[in-house]
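Re-running the complex after MR caught last week's input typo. The corrected sequence lines follow. Everything else is unchanged.
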Amino acid sequence: MPHDHSHCVADALTRADALCAERGARLTTLRRRVLELVWSSHRPRGAYAILEDLSQQDGKATAPLTVYRALEFLVEQGLVHRIESLNAYVGCAAPGPTHSGQFLVCEGCGDAAEVDDPQVRAAIETAAAARGFRVQRPTVEVRGVCKACQEKHP
Amino acid sequence: MPHDHSHCVADALTRADALCAERGARLTTLRRRVLELVWSSHRPRGAYAILEDLSQQDGKATAPLTVYRALEFLVEQGLVHRIESLNAYVGCAAPGPTHSGQFLVCEGCGDAAEVDDPQVRAAIETAAAARGFRVQRPTVEVRGVCKACQEKHP
DNA sequence: GTCATGACGTTACTATATAACCTTGCCGCC
DNA sequence: GGCGGCAAGGTTATATAGTAACGTCATGAC
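Corrected-run output:
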């Protein structure tokens, strides 16, 4: 499944522009640059990796806080998700009504595919409700091996 | 739901002794102490919190590695689970055939209740299979508010 | 007893994240 | 246009989390 990644990035940026405009949120130059760097692959990227890219682009050191603040904004807007089990961030392909999807994280290639499966959501909601627990933010991160990697290493 | 927590701890240690004996795994003094410290509450505890306890008990500084190694062992044996979204560890109330449960993490009291819901498991497995993804280790950590805390703050 | 192995100690280091405080620049408003 | 307010971003320092490399000691097999 070869894909033209520049499309992914361009699309993500376009959607982000639209969404922020619509919401009156300020997608500043810095935030947009960080978003672009998060999207540089489909692999979750650590804050410090992004920090390095940023520093290199600018030819001078950037402070961690700069990146963390931008990421915080992007996560709030649902443009980026944090992968807790990796301490890393990945672009959201379908931002919109703020959601919290599930992630299939491949041990082979490192890609994190986002899915939003209603059954999984429902099962979690039901299990929680049965215990009187009110769900605010479900986190589902599944480690395993993606289809492509299975085919490569049979 | 007041509960005699010393029971939880004692039970956990007894089960751990039995399980390790059965498996030929060495639950050394250090590992047992760390397990006990993890169990000091039902809240996930950070490695460094445990480290401090340990250092204080001994009256001298303990190195992080000491704790991390013990935790690694306990996690491998399924006696303790790591809560990824908190970088913290919590005792497993039902160790045995190695499992990966789901956690209901309360924002109020900080308690992490472990549940092992077959529906949730199945839904994740199905969603992954539909995408050709082979599941190795699912992580489910649900943030929200537990029953007790809801009743306290209505 | 000897030896292999695994547990633990020690030192140093890397990675991830936040605190406190200040400066800048944008925006609405008069 | 200028002014006041506020959010964004810069700066410095520090907290928290996790590993690497290497040595020593205890335990059990033989």
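None of the earlier attempt is carried over here. The longest strand of chain B covers residues 134-145. Residues 66 and 98 of chain B are 24 Å apart (CA to CA).
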